[in-house]
């Protein structure tokens, strides 16, 4: 059969058949006779704008898929998203959802979210802060809130006084009957305080309790028999043992756990060791009694003045009920008490005794605020519920722990031991 003459074919597939039968060389354009004509060698070459102008009014540049003109598609902003048409979409008014102020998170409304009790260390939870169901701030003619509980910080005041007097009697008996018993009492208090603190910290850190309690008891004994140098040595040994003990739990969060452990070792047993140092001299019982009495005066004077005159919060984010007026009451009570007690107990000038009382007030308040800050950071109200009317033992020791080293230093200078 002879070779077919495909040049006269009238259909649109003639060029393909000619190529297939060898009638045209390679590189010839595809679909010559097709009305949607060929591209060059590359079948996906850019469109020829002169041959195929596209829709009327459309603009084409070097990029065949370039941006369309403004008549068809309005340009977007610089960020690629079209702006809202202010004429069509105005801000919501009172009928819809009114926009917030500049701050999308409005500040805490003290009138709408009122604490249910007067707790100094109130936790920010639903049980303590009630949201008004009507969504409005209370008015002057609104029903009065329930009466506050009689005790400080919403506690049972008679129970707190009774328990406080009982604890004071135990301390006084240990000092007056057999002073080494006071060392044992301090060691027990240190162990309980460490248990409360480690229990509270335990949600975040692994703090070894056993070596801390053993080290705390050792520090109390070393302070009694060896003085301040032995107390510092006991702290160092305790930290070393705690570091070794913690290795068993692996490297995860080791640094954070050790920092928490060092804080516990310094805050509780080391500072409590200064109370033992205070009791070492022959008149040590009197020194302890004066220091504890000034701490109680600071707390009592601050409470009375705060209840009667308190208007200006001292540290609202830490202890909302502490006021500058209450602090003034603490200063006055301790200054007067310090002047009288040091004059009659140690024959110290009254003004030196007043300065001593002022110093005790400052460090006692600082210790109270420090523990409040730690409890808020840990999200707890009290270190425990061990002592009725008081919370935990650490809630009673917070002021004393900083007052003890201050008293050791100042009383050694003002009334040197015989």
UniProtKB/TrEMBL annotation:
Q: For this UniProt entry, which segments traverse the membrane?
A: 157-175, 181-198, 207-225, 231-248, 260-280, 286-305, 326-344, 350-369
Membrane-topology annotation of the record: Multi-pass membrane protein
UniProt entry tagged with the keyword Glycoprotein: no
Is Ligase among this UniProt entry's keywords? no
**Top-level division of the source organism's lineage:** Bacteria
- EC identifiers of the protein: 2.7.7.41
Record GO terms (molecular function): phosphatidate cytidylyltransferase activity
Q: Which reactions are catalysed by this chain?
A: a 1,2-diacyl-sn-glycero-3-phosphate + CTP + H(+) = a CDP-1,2-diacyl-sn-glycerol + diphosphate
Keyword list, A-Z: Cell membrane, Lipid biosynthesis, Lipid metabolism, Membrane, Nucleotidyltransferase, Phospholipid biosynthesis, Phospholipid metabolism, Transferase, Transmembrane, Transmembrane helix
Which residue intervals make up region (Disordered)?
A: 1-122
Query: What is the first-listed, main subcellular location in coarse terms?
Result: membrane
Q: Which GO terms describe its cellular component?
A: plasma membrane
What species does this protein belong to?
A: Actinorhabdospora filicis
Pathway, according to UniProt? Lipid metabolism; Phospholipid metabolism; CDP-diacylglycerol biosynthesis; CDP-diacylglycerol from sn-glycerol 3-phosphate: step 3/3
Per the record, the similarity remark reads: Belongs to the CDS family.
Q: Which Pfam family is one of this chain's hits? A: CTP_transf_1
Principal EC category? transferase
Could you mention a single GO BP entry for this protein? CDP-diacylglycerol biosynthetic process
Recorded protein name is: Phosphatidate cytidylyltransferase
Return the Basic and acidic residues bias intervals: 37-51, 58-90, 98-122
Q: Where does it reside?
A: Cell membrane
């Amino acid at each position: 059969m002879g070779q077919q003459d495909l040049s006269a074919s009238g259909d649109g597939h003639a060029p393909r058949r000619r190529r297939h039968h060898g009638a045209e060389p390679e590189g010839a354009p595809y679909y010559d006779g097709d009305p949607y004509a060929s591209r060059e060698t590359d079948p996906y070459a850019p469109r020829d704008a002169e041959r195929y102008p596209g829709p009327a009014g459309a603009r084409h540049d070097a990029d065949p898929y370039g941006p369309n003109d403004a008549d068809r598609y309005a340009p977007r902003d610089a960020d690629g998203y079209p702006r809202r048409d202010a004429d069509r979409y105005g801000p919501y008014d009172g009928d819809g959802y009114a926009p917030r102020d500049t701050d999308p998170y409005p500040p805490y409304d003290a009138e709408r979210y009122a604490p249910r009790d007067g707790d100094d260390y109130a936790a920010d939870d639903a049980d303590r802060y009630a949201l008004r169901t009507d969504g409005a701030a209370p008015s002057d003619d609104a029903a009065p809130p329930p009466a506050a509980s009689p005790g400080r910080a919403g506690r049972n005041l008679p129970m707190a006084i009774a328990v406080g007097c009982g604890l004071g009697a135990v301390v006084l008996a240990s000092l007056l009957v057999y002073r080494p018993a006071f060392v044992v009492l301090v060691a027990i208090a240190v162990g309980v305080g460490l248990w409360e603190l480690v229990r509270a910290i335990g949600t975040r850190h692994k703090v070894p309790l056993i070596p801390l309690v053993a080290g705390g008891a050792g520090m109390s004994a070393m302070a009694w028999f060896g003085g301040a140098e032995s107390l510092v040595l006991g702290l160092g040994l305790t930290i070393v043992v705690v570091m070794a003990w913690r290795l068993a739990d692996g490297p995860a969060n080791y640094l954070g756990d050790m920092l928490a452990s060092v804080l516990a070792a310094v805050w509780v047993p080391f500072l409590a060791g200064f109370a033992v140092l205070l009791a070492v001299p022959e008149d040590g019982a009197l020194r302890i009694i004066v220091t504890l009495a000034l701490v109680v005066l600071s707390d009592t004077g601050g409470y009375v003045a705060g209840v009667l005159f308190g208007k200006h919060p001292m540290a609202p984010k830490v202890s909302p009920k502490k006021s500058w007026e209450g602090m003034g009451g603490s200063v006055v009570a301790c200054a007067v008490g310090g002047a009288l007690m040091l004059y009659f107990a140690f024959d110290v000038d009254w003004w030196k005794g007043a300065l001593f009382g002022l110093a005790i007030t400052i460090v006692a308040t600082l210790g109270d605020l420090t523990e409040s800050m730690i409890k808020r950071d840990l999200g707890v109200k009290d270190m425990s519920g061990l002592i009725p009317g008081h919370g935990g033992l650490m809630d009673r020791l917070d002021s004393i722990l900083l007052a003890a080293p201050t008293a050791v230093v100042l009383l050694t200078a003002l009334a040197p031991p015989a």
